[in-house]
Design brief:
Blueprint lengths: L4 H16 L2 H8 L5 H22 L12 H24 L3 H8 L1 H14 L6 H18 L9 H24 L4 H23 L5 H30 L4 H8 L2 H12 L6 H20 L11
Helix pairs in contact: 1-10, 1-11, 2-10, 3-4, 3-9, 3-10, 4-8, 4-9, 5-8, 5-12, 6-8, 6-13, 7-13
Length: 301
């Protein structure tokens, strides 16, 4: 049975959300023997291998010669491949999987604020203000537990990471007008993977061969399934349904992450974590529906 286009889009986004919900958990598991930046670099290179396979299957290698797209690809690599994932992996080293999943939704807030307010100068409607306030409130609920002794470093790093993503997505959208998504993701993965490994070599202890082998399964899952396949599912999904609907479906990700973290890492969700999802979810709906133009999240993180 062939799925209707919109239903196929919904299924793709749902599958993407299910896969991505495992990202914080798999990443934290890889930290058992591999430091954060090494984990990020190696996982990203595995994603590069995945997209190299797609380039081969679709015979898209000649598109690499479209150098007019390289400037935007380099910029999206810097903002997402290096800054976003660098801060995200470092953040997950110092916080829980649940907090990481909840706070990653702040990307919607920064997407609207940076792309909508700062760049498109959209008016601040009451719905906009309420939506933004809800998302900030949700983030504060996650941060509050450590407020007495200083905010948890990992939570702040993840919030910083989400601020880089909208800018990177903007450049990815421009590059997508010239080359395919596979080309963008391949170059981004290979270049950022190498750069992250260089940074890791400077700032972290170099893992042994045994350490890498011990975490290899988690690194491959992260690279191929989460940084690779889940992104293809997202892209295929937003070609079939509105981005606002896709974001709404994707909002189940933190709940799934809390469940997976509970089952795998034995991290029982706290009342504050569950409470934070409510205002953040409301804020997402208000922000995505208050923008006069669709949020520019064409290329996923």
């Amino acid at each position: 049975m062939v799925l209707h286009s919109s239903r196929a889009g919904e299924v793709n986004i749902l599958l993407s959300a299910v896969l991505w919900s495992m990202f914080p958990v798999i990443t934290i598991l890889s930290f058992g023997s591999v430091p954060p930046l090494f984990s990020a670099g190696i996982s990203t290179l595995f994603a590069g291998v995945f997209f190299a396979g797609l380039l081969t299957a679709k015979k898209e290698w000649p598109l690499l010669l479209k150098f007019e797209a390289w400037k935007d690809i380099m910029l999206t690599t810097a903002f997402i491949g290096i800054a976003f994932y660098g801060f995200m992996f470092l953040g997950l080293k110092h916080t829980s999987a649940g907090n990481g999943a909840i706070l990653s939704l702040m990307e919607v807030f920064f997407s609207f604020f940076i792309l909508g307010i700062l760049l498109r100068h959209e008016p601040l409607l009451p719905r906009t203000v309420i939506g933004g306030a809800c998302m900030v409130l949700g983030a504060l609920l996650v941060l509050i537990p450590k407020g007495a002794g200083g905010w948890q470093q990992g939570d702040l790093l993840i919030i910083i990471a989400t601020a880089f993503a909208p800018i990177g997505n903007r450049f990815a959208q421009r590059a997508r007008k010239v080359v395919t998504t596979n080309v963008i993701m391949f170059l981004r993965s290979i270049i950022s993977g190498v750069f992250l490994l260089i940074l890791a070599n400077w700032f972290e202890s170099i893992p042994t061969h045994a350490d890498i082998v011990g975490a290899l399964g988690f690194l491959i899952i992260n690279g191929v399934l989460l940084l690779g396949l889940s992104k293809i599912l997202w892209i295929e999904g937003i070609h079939r349904i509105p981005i606002t609907k896709a974001i709404s479906i994707e909002s189940i990700t933190p709940l799934l992450t809390l469940l997976v973290a509970w089952l795998v890492l034995y991290e029982a969700p706290s009342v504050l974590q569950i409470s934070a999802i409510v205002p953040i979810g409301v804020g997402m709906v208000l922000l995505t529906k208050s923008s006069s133009k669709p949020l520019e999240v064409v290329s996923p993180n």
